[in-house]
Amino acid sequence: MTSIDDLPIRDDLRGREPYGAPQLDVPVRLNTNENPYPPSPELVKALGEAVAEVAGSLNRYPDRDATELRADLAGFLNADTPGAGLTADRVWAANGSNEIIQQILQAFGGAGRTALGFEPSYSMHPIITRVTGTAWVNAQRDEDFGLDPERAVAAIEEHRPDVVFLTSPNNPTGTALPLEAVEAVLAAAPGMVVVDEAYGEFRREDTLSALELLEEHPRLIVTRTMSKAFAMAGTRLGYLAADPAVIGALLLVRLPYHLSAVTQAVARTALAYSGELLGSVETLRRERDLLVGWLRGQGFEVADSDANFALFGRFADRSAVWRAMLERGVLVREVGPPQWLRVTIGTSEEMAAFRAALKESV
Ligand code: PMP
């Protein structure tokens, strides 16, 4: 049997583990922050028709620049953040925001360069960073998982990173950053600043999107995805908003025709149904706030959440709790600081199952 170690693999990949949130077939899956509501029969029909329409020309490559999709995404962002003033040339799309992040690092990171993030945060930021040959610097969030602007600036001044990652709302904590923190980082950072807003649509009313800052900051990139609030994780569509020059830089590293004609057609159809797809956001927000209140009532610590999940603890042995819940058909996520677990907000039935399983598991 040949093992990876027998192969002439890059030295820096030896001993690494692949990304792997368990994909288990259990009744209540609350571990990867998806939207629990599937598309309506009407949308399913529209998606089928959109795919049928492009099927007849699948012998040809798709639009390499995804021009129409990017215009639709710009329209969606302008509705999300009135005043953002985005146009297609300020928006870029790829196969999930993970690919967006990879393209950013291919263009602005690489050998001899550094990216910095504030942990605990999204585990793929350091993984994609290293895979692109970029060095990773792990700075820390505050005790309450927030980010004090002065501490953030001090970390940036110490390490002078080429790319800074800010995640807001943050995964796995749910914590959103005030725009003042983002502005302080932008003022101090010598390179690109990426605000990962994968959960942006779930933000609370008084939380503002970093899209508000784009006009004044050509080195700011705001990333979004259709995988979370948009209920289209299976489509694999992530996108960003930035200065047109940033998109010019990404064109240098993207693979030709990276976004299939089927993906573009499905994503555009989903955007045309954004009213339906985002219709569940209010329900999920309400369910989140109920859950956080319930967990606190039960004596758990819970991080404030602007997202569709909650980080709760603390557990002396979180793996034991995770396993006990799994035995009861409820899959949550063992992620983040060692004494905490993360639960995605599902339907009210799923949350009832979660509450029952948790009570029996601690
Ligand atoms: N950013 C954050 C903060 C995430 O939590 C995720 C998904 N877990 C992603 C990006 C990537 O999502 P996708 O590739 O599905 O767009």
From TrEMBL:
InterPro entries linked to this entry: Aminotrans_II_pyridoxalP_BS (IPR001917), Aminotransferase_I/II_large (IPR004839), HisP_aminotrans (IPR005861), PyrdxlP-dep_Trfase (IPR015424), PyrdxlP-dep_Trfase_major (IPR015421), PyrdxlP-dep_Trfase_small (IPR015422)
EC number, UniProt record: 2.6.1.9
Residues covered by region (Disordered): 1-24
Biased composition (Basic and acidic residues): 7-17
Cofactors: pyridoxal 5'-phosphate
Limits of the Aminotransferase class I/classII large domain: 28-355
Database matches in CDD domains: AAT_like
Biological process according to GO: L-histidine biosynthetic process
Family stated for the protein in its record: Belongs to the class-II pyridoxal-phosphate-dependent aminotransferase family. Histidinol-phosphate aminotransferase subfamily.
Protein name: Histidinol-phosphate aminotransferase
